[in-house]
Amino acid sequence: MLVNQAYCKISEATKDEAIGKTVLRERDNEVFQTGKGLDLTERTYTDRDGNCHYVSVKKAPLTDESGKVSHVLTISRDITEHKREDEERERLLKEIETKNSELERFSYTVSHDLRSPLITIQGFARLLQEDLEQGRTEDLQSQLEYIETAAIKMDRLITDTLQLSRIGRVVNPPEDVPFGALVQDAQEQTQEQIKSGGVEVTVADDFPTVHVDRMRIVEVLVNLITNSTKYMGEQRHPKIDIGYRVDGKTPVFFVQDNGMGIDKGQHETVFELFHKVDSSSNGTGAGLAIVKRIIEVHEGRIWIESEEGKGCTVCFTLPDTSDS
Question: Rounded to whole angstroms, how far apart are CA atoms 115 and 241?
Answer without folding.
Answer: 38
